[in-house]
Amino acid sequence: MKSYRKELHFHTKTRRAYINITTQVEVALAESGVREGLCLVNALNITASVFINDNESGLHRDFERWLEKLAPEKPYDQYNHNGSEDNADAHLKRTVMGRETVVAITNGKLDFGTWEQIFYGEFDGMRDKRVLVKIIGE
Asked: Which residues of the chain have pLDDT under 50?
């Protein structure tokens, strides 16, 4: 069985962002040489997320609006976590959106359903962050 590891690096210009990383994961898959197996993609920072959904800008705006209702960024003093930091909302948003996704690999391709794409969700940006791509299989 083969095992392949790659890190993707991000530094967004905004506090929150949704970035389609499907192509980057497909590149890692091609580099791995794996034809049948599994691909794990997970955020290595507690205020970021990896998830699968549709690549549609209206949906991304819906995520933003919905998450902001669930865990509004401000006022900062509404959260016990916020003391020297102001990112409690980002921790909560990550919990809702999830840490990782696993995609089956079939015939050397990510085995997606219709419209599925992999996204990096940033909830406390403007600094260096990482995503792990771990591929195992034959």
From this structure: none
